[in-house]
Amino acid sequence: MIPLNGEQLKSLPVGRLEHVRELVAFDGPLLTQLRHPSGEQYLQYWCDCDESVERWMILRISEANILRLMNGFIPLDMIIPNECRDDFVYFVDSPKASGPDKVFLVPKEGVPFDYRPATGAFLEEIYSPLTQDSYSFVVEGGWSVKALGDFPHVFSKAYSLLYGFTFLHWNNIVSFPWRGGFSAMHFFNWASQQVAGEHRPNVSAMQYASPGFMRFSLHRPTAQEVINCIVAYKTSNVDIAAAYSKLASRIRDHNLNDVHSPDDPVWIDHDAFLQSEAVKLMNGFGVIDGVAFATICGRPFEAAKIAMAFYRQVRDLVEFEKDGLVRYPRSDRARAVGVAK
Amino acid sequence: MQLRYADQLTDVAECPPIHASPPDQLAFRYVRDPVQCPGDFLPVAILQPNRQLDGTACCSAWALSFFETRDAAILRFAQLKRFVKQIHKKLGTHLAQVQLTQADGVATPPNEYGHFELFEDSGSDFSGRFAIVEQLP
Taking CB atoms and an 8 Å limit, are A49 and B90 in contact across chains? Predict the structure, then answer.
């Protein structure tokens, strides 16, 4: 093993480190996030081994940097060891079988070259699954009080709809009088009430800094679907926007919001169009099958209104990023997810 | 079929995974040169008994890692090496291939990276069966 240029300690001075998640693993953990009861975050990084000992580097890292790392904004080599919050890192030589650990205190600049990740090693190349009950966003820039309130609200609306369709597998939606934003609000209120209590998105932690983070407790797979929709919006915006625009024009030009009776003969002229464009709009997001969505919604008009309302939530979420307030990770579909081994 | 480490597996939930089935395929694994048997074929749970285990990782710790293609194995190793430069000391320096048979145990379906896990049968013996293909990058 490579000799360490540091001071040997009797034991690791930081106790009670709790396992948070494995970030990289293959036949055992290689990079693990740890948390001290004080809230301080640590990374435990596999460095070396011989026949009897495994060597780990343990370093204190800000949670914002861990989030930036996890979300692919910065590579691992920018974190280890340079972003350690101390001037030193710990090395722990841990026997494979039994026996006491040997602990060394090494200045950051003394970390051997071969114990540093290669340049440009982005975690998303080799990501491992994360916990299922939370999701964190990297926040940047200056947030107004209004934006701080709006973001969770908008996110929750998109989340609730996706939760209903992808997790609860709604097979029908109660009929709403779709007339303007006020009814949309009622729909999302209803949708949010369908979300199981433990899955309702709540802001569980926030660090207001640039970069900082906002962590939601929620149903993570649904949150990932929201992100997938955001990515779809950004990458195929023209197609999605065209469908939205056609629906909006049709409803506005023909005053369809004012046609109250579902049995009114006027719908004969519009149902096929509304259904077709609603299907296109939802298919554009790539998360919910558009035809199934339209069937569950019942009437084509309601499918159109729900699809349009969902579109606006996603659009607003994208605007938060355009305004420099939040940075979304790439979608889980785009990212190489899921190798714990 | 009696799996090796069957006693230990009984303490792990859903292990081996229900979708694991007997293999019959060419497979690739990281090894040392020369191949050390049984040293290159011990699961992590044996190699590192002190390792903290939880959830699916606990089950995986009793399995051996394989890849279904040479390219998948090389790609994954190259990726790991970017994160951990000394990874060859942990995983091996060479890639070897073997024809897995149904008598070797049960294997999980390959994931999207061509990686799968083999839970060895108690009678499985890899001595002399692995052929080194190339040195790892």
Answer: yes
Spatial strand order of the sheet with B64-67 comes to B105-107, B115-120, B64-67, B25-31, B94-100, B131-135
Calculate ∠ Cα A226-A22-B41, nearest 5°: 125
Q: Please, what's the b/e burial string for A150-180 (b: 16 or more CB within 10 A of its CB; e: otherwise)?
A: bbbebbbbbbbbbbbbebbebeebeebebee
Separation between Cα atoms, residue A83 and residue A316, nearest integer Å: 33
User: At a CB cut-off of 8 Å and minimum separation 6, what does A262 contact?
Assistant: A175, A299, A301
Cα of first residue to Cα of last residue in chain B, in angstroms, is 37
The pTM of the full predicted model, rounded to 2 decimals, is 0.65
How far apart are the CA of A285 and the nearest CA of chain B, in angstroms? 23
Report chain A residues whose CB lies below 8 A from the CB of B61. 28
Q: How far apart are CA A82 and CA A21, in angstroms?
A: 21
ipTM value of the model? Answer: 0.91
- Quick check: A137 pLDDT over 70? yes
Query: pLDDT by residue (tens digit) across A164-214?
Result: 999 999 988 866 666 555 578 888 998 999 999 999 999 877 777 666 778
Nearest-CA distance B137 → chain A (Å) = 14
Does any CB of chain B come closer than 8 Å to the CB of residue A282? no
With 0-12 / 13-18 / 19 or more C-beta atoms within 10 angstroms meaning exposed / middle / buried, residue A145 is exposed
A340·B56 Cβ contact <8 A: yes
Residue A11 in contact with residue B48, Cβ under 8 Å? Answer: no
- Joined together, the tokens standing for residue A1 give 């093993």
What separation, in Å, do the N-terminal and C-terminal C-alpha atoms of chain A show?
Answer: 24
Contact A49 B50 (CB under 8 A): no
What amino acid is encoded at B56 in this protein?
Answer: T
Q: Which of A18, A16, A1, A15 is nearest to A52 (CA)?
A: A1
